[in-house]
Amino acid sequence: MKVKTLAKQVATILGVPFSTRGFHETVTYIAERIENGQKTHVVTANPEIVMLARENRAFQSIVEQAYVVPDGIGIVYAAKWTNQPIRERVTGVELLEALMTEANKHQWGVYLLGAKPDVISLAAEKLAARYPNARLVGYRDGFFRAEDEEKIVQEIAEAKPELLFVALGAPRQDEWMVKYRDRLNASMMMGVGGSFDVISGKVKRAPEIWQKLHLEWFYRLASQPSRWKRQLAIPRFVLTVLKEKWSSRS
Questions:
Q1: Helices within 131-194 (DSSP H only)
Q2: β strands within 155-237, DSSP E
Q3: Lowest mean pLDDT across 80-84, 139-143, 231-235
Q4: CA-to-CA distance for 123 and 31, rounded, in angstroms?
């Protein structure tokens, strides 16, 4: 299969280069790259990730070299305010499920890393049942010591997964993947944050009506009040985008 030559499809939001491809186009693009042996590091970025990159130069450098998708309605609104062509969200958990569908179709190998021991084992069990033709070549929780990393890297390298999903939280998950990128033998690696918690059933995703109303962030805050400090990134993101927009007009 040959990857189509496409014009560069990037929109820059506060220094972060986002893909402007829609959800289905994104899945097709990543799948074609995997089929062609091209390695891809996917970052699912919401306003919190954008603000983190803005404040952390090392993380910003990682994001600049990755394939970044707009995970969060705040990114879509920011693109609209700055007249850039991002039309829809590409959420991490939905992208993971869509890529698992591709893995099921092509019998790709999949490795899962991160989350709590009970969460990752349950997520692995559910994904294996849901996508029986995908090869679950291994999984490991995220509570490991520095001295365990070499063994984990070797295990992943030997498994040679087409898909490597890592849930260690930002920016650690992307820093970890980039640190070992050349040794992991993974076709595509993607940080998935709390996706394993959702897949395992430990955390419930917002009902569809909340998603359609673009209030998923508020549902999560109401369900997990301890997230309030993290959610402060949203108003800071909005104010920073609008400030830059007004500054560019003056």
A1: 149-159, 172-184
A2: 163-167, 188-191
A3: 231-235
A4: 22
User: What's the token pair of residue 131?
Assistant: 């996508």
Tell me the C-alpha to C-alpha distance, in Å, between residue 69 and each of 8, 86, 159, 161, 189.
14, 10, 27, 21, 13
**HSE of 219 in the Cβ direction (CA atoms, 13 Å)?**
14
Q: Is there a contact between 238 and 53 (Cβ–Cβ < 8 Å)?
A: no
Question: What topology is assigned to 10-199 in CATH?
Answer: Rossmann fold (3.40.50)
Q: What is the pTM of this model?
A: 0.88
CA atoms of 169 and 96, how far apart (whole Å): 16
- The 10s digit of each residue's pLDDT in 144-176 is 999 999 999 999 999 999 999 999 999 999 999
> For the chain, what are the domain ranges?
10-199
CA pair distance 19, 67, nearest whole angstrom: 7
Chain mean pLDDT for the chain: 90
